[in-house]
Amino acid sequence: MASRSVAGFRAAATRQSRNAEVANNVDPGLRALFNRVGGGKGSMEQRTRRFQQYAHDHPSEVTAALQAHADRRVSAMMSQPRANRPRWMSRLSGSPRQASSGGSLGGSGLSGIGDMSVPF
User: Fold this and answer.
1) What is the DSSP string of 99-113?
2) Mean pLDDT, to the nearest integer, of 2-8?
3) Can you tell me the distance from the alpha carbon of 77 to that of 55, in angstroms, rounded to the nearest whole number?
4) What is residue 32's three-state secondary structure?
5) Whole-model pTM?
6) How do residues 43-56 score in pLDDT, each as one tens digit?
7) Rounded Cα distance, 1 and 7, in Å
8) Which of 64, 90, 104, 116 is the most buried (most CB within 10 A)?
9) Reduced to 3 states, what is the DSSP secondary structure of residue 29?
């Protein structure tokens, strides 16, 4: 009975190791999705290809996984003390700037853009 538990432990450790190898080939934003759906059995290349095909066939799940990953990253950065945040994040936590009339368009705004003709 003890040999089965050791063999089971080894098999689980091998599966985890193989999953980690494939997960390293997957975009960090998609690793949670890979961990959820897996890649099935086979070599590392076969499992990676199978997951890539799954991601191709299920774009809404890919979008949701990437959005969740981005949300977690931003939340983690925003929870840092202000002095330790990346410089570009200071713009996110400040008050939004008011759009000035004209700006770099010389005061003309965006009027007339729809009247431009396209030469093709």
Assistant:
1) PPSSGGGTT-TTTTG
2) 70
3) 28
4) helix
5) 0.54
6) 888 888 888 899 99
7) 10
8) 64
9) helix
Cβ neighbour number for residue 4 with a 10 Å cutoff:
8
Q: Cα 41 from chain centroid?
A: 25
Task: Give the start-to-end residue ranges of the domains of the chain.
Answer: 2-88
113/15 Cα distance (integer angstroms): 58
- Amino acid, single-letter form, for residue 117: S
Q: Which residue has the tokens 């432990």?
A: 9
Distance CA 56, CA 73 (A): 24
Judging by beta carbons within 10 Å of its beta carbon (0-12, 13-18, 19+), is residue 22 exposed, middle or buried? buried
Q: Which two tokens stand for residue 32?
A: 């949670």
Cβ-contact 51, 37 below 8 angstroms: yes
Neighbours of 53 (CB within 10 A): 11
Only one residue has tokens 């997951």, namely 51
Q: How far is CA 32 from the centre of its chain?
A: 9
> What are the respective helix, strand and coil percentages of the chain, to the nearest 5?
70, 0, 30
